[in-house]
Amino acid sequence: MDDDEDEDLMLPRKKRDDDEMDITPMIDITFLLLIFFVVCSTMDPTKIGTIPEADNGLAIAAKNAAVIFVNPGPNDSVILSKIDSSEFSRDEDAQANEIIEYITSELEKSLGASKQHVMLFGDADVNVGQITRIQKIIGDAFEDLDATYIAVKEN
């Protein structure tokens, strides 16, 4: 009688329909791949890109701005020069200090009346990362500056 009772207690397993599919492993793999690509990708916009072509823009007189000329140099570097054609240092740390000094002196010449923005004259072949680096130097040093304008030379 014990054998009959054991057989009665065992319930049959429910068969899974052939039409159903468990997608949980596929979702897990998708999220793992997403996490992998987010961790491995670089999000630095200064490393890629080119300066966009100017369609039209606001006319800004160079006499009313502190002007810096940005020309392409070797190995994605830039050659910066002042409005009087004298060049800034090629060393980036020294260059940052010279940019700050130059803009400070240009803004002080105007006695705060007319020069309240900076103009970067860039060549179309200049790496956009270099323009971004120069803008960051200017923005960090001169928080009260009205605007920084970028002018792109047409080829």
Automatic annotation (TrEMBL):
It holds the Pfam family ExbD. One of its GO terms (molecular function) is transmembrane transporter activity. Keywords: Cell membrane, Membrane, Protein transport, Transmembrane, Transmembrane helix, Transport. The keyword Cell membrane applies. It is found in: Cell membrane. The keyword Transport applies. It is a single-pass membrane protein; Single-pass type II membrane protein. InterPro entries: ExbD. One of its GO terms (cellular component) is plasma membrane. The chain crosses the membrane at residues 23-40. One of its GO terms (biological process) is protein transport. Belongs to the ExbD/TolR family. This is Biopolymer transport protein ExbD/TolR. The lineage of its organism: Bacteria, Pseudomonadati, Planctomycetota, Planctomycetia, Pirellulales.
